[in-house]
Amino acid sequence: MKVSLVTLSALLPSAFALWPLPTGLSLGTTPLKLSKGFDIKIGIPNPPADLVAAVSRAKGFLANDKLQALVVDRGASSASAIAGAKSLPSLTLSLATTAKGSSLKSISAEAIAPIESRVEGYTLTVPADGSGAVLKANSSLGLLHGLTTFGQLWYDLPGPSSRTTYSLSAPIQITDAPAYPYRGFMLDTARNFFPVSDIKRTIDAMSWVKINTLHWHVVDSQSFPLVVPGYTVLSEKGAYSASKVYSPSDVKDIVTYAAARGIDVIPEIDTPGHTSVISKAFPEHIACPEATPWASFANEPPAGQLRLASEATVNFTAGLLKAAAGLFESKFFSTGGDEINANCYTQDNETQASLASSNKTFLQALDTFTQANHAALRSVGKSAVVWEEMVLDNPVTLANDTIVMVWISSADVAAVAETGFRIVHAASDYFYLDCGHGGWVGDFPTGNSWCDPFKTWQHAYVFDPVANLTAAQAERVLGGQSLLWTEQSGPENLDSTTWPRAASTAELFWSGPGGDVQAALPRLHEQVYRFRQRGVAANALQPEWCALRPGACDLTA
Ligand SMILES: *[C@@H]1O[C@H](CO)[C@@H](O)[C@H](O)[C@H]1NC(C)=O
Ligand SMILES: *[C@@H]1O[C@H](CO)[C@@H](O)[C@H](O)[C@H]1NC(C)=O
Ligand SMILES: *[C@@H]1O[C@H](CO)[C@@H](O)[C@H](O)[C@H]1NC(C)=O
Ligand SMILES: *[C@@H]1O[C@H](CO)[C@@H](O)[C@H](O)[C@H]1NC(C)=O
Ligand SMILES: *[C@@H]1O[C@H](CO)[C@@H](O)[C@H](O)[C@H]1NC(C)=O
Ligand SMILES: *[C@@H]1O[C@H](CO)[C@@H](O)[C@H](O)[C@H]1NC(C)=O
Fold first, then answer.
1. SS3 sequence, 448-481?
2. What is the pLDDT of residue 9?
3. How many angstroms does the Cα of residue 372 sit away from the middle of ligand 2?
4. Ligand (nearest to CA of 355)
5. Are residues 239 and 162 in the same domain?
6. Same domain for 117 and 266
7. What is the pTM of this model?
């Protein structure tokens, strides 16, 4: 993987807008343009409706992207070569193997299938001689990804009367498949609320860089925007307002929208910590609600944790998780498990009484609590996802299909790997998008973010997913994700905080490690410009002067 990515990068023309970089790519030097009547055809009987919709979106992007080459003349000097170029009449989608009798599943079905069974690869052939292009895959997901790649091959040249959509790199041959099956983005919608439209726009942007998982940290101590059937009082009393909620139909809308774009939505209801707001509706289940000084009871205000040793609270939590799980299609559900504050429980007489009467230590009680929750999820077909503390600080009994997310530090990866569970990289020292924006707690002028400094796209890009791991441990790395905790984010800066940095991580886990930032920068610039053309307000990486002159602003240029 390492060798191929580096080699490919070196072969690319200075401007070529593929992101993430395909794992197998060969380019020519012949100009080619899309014919006026260019069409995308589906050479598959009874194609699934979401594949037909994906083709329609792909055509829309070809018509509307109008992405001009990021060179000083924006492609004008190639005008005569382009005018004389052959025209590509069509792209035809077909199945790589003609498995008779087995009809193609929908993108939506494949997106939420068991992660180890997903097939995402494709081949794409774009001849230079004016014959049609062909996209082949064994799956709807593969066809979706191939369509996304096809849409990144073209530039726009405005003419006096009409535009031309062209490439200077035909013939093009791509054989592509992801290095890792889990490529995610985590969004926290509890510290600040995000309307459904913002989440859908983010899902669109994720799909354009082949991210396939939205880890939705939907509720937390500050607010409970999720409307859970049977537990609606939680959002009635715990959402920031009656309009800042996700109804079951909103959730279905998001889950359906994501699945049609190849994205699995994994919800998280963090437990037993990060649950203060539940006290508004169910005070009997929360220890140390809004206790002060908050810093003695929690890592951020407001304090409050589920009374994990109480049988009634265990029953309540398991029931809540099961009901919430019913809103989602994913095979996974995260029960969190991070940042449990011991003092909160020490100071809580009810918890101490429960521990005494059941003759359990804190860890035994946490084990009972976790097993009950996970059993409830398993009863509705869900595997658990947990944060790293559940195997390191507070090792509890977990089923072998549990996924553990490393968040505190990449230095913990090896220790988590030793426990034998499957791992998702989410370490704050590489993948947290919220670091480095200054402190947010009040009355503390010299405060910083706890995970300073800001994590640049370059920093995440050079992460090694298998550093410090044995070969056997490396096999249990499912992939990784960028994460946006939203203490200092809202709809206003969602796009600019997330993009293009989350795209850097997307390429790391699709194309594999070993890419170099110098070769990647011109392509990432183009991805930024494409995001903007499609309505996602991605941040600038450099002055436009530099974006138009690949390499000219490198440190040693
Ligand atoms: C489709 O599956 C066949 C059989 O497993 C494999 O040889 C081929 O490479 C696959 N094609 C693509 C495009 O992934
Ligand atoms: C909670 O307790 C009730 C009554 O004993 C029981 O019917 C229910 O199954 C329990 N729920 C869970 C999730 O254990
Ligand atoms: C907890 O118990 C102790 C000892 O019985 C008592 O002094 C304290 O007031 C109790 N705290 C609360 C919040 O009830
Ligand atoms: C409480 O648990 C400890 C350790 O498991 C055990 O030695 C003790 O006998 C138990 N006490 C009661 C009253 O069950
Ligand atoms: C869990 O263990 C079962 C039984 O040994 C095995 O079949 C399964 O593959 C394991 N699952 C994972 C994810 O390791
Ligand atoms: C590898 O281990 C070292 C030493 O514990 C640690 O500092 C580093 O962050 C780890 N690297 C990764 C990528 O996990």
1. CCCCCCCCCHHHHHCCCCCCCCCHHHHCCEEEEE
2. 44
3. 10
4. 4
5. no
6. no
7. 0.95
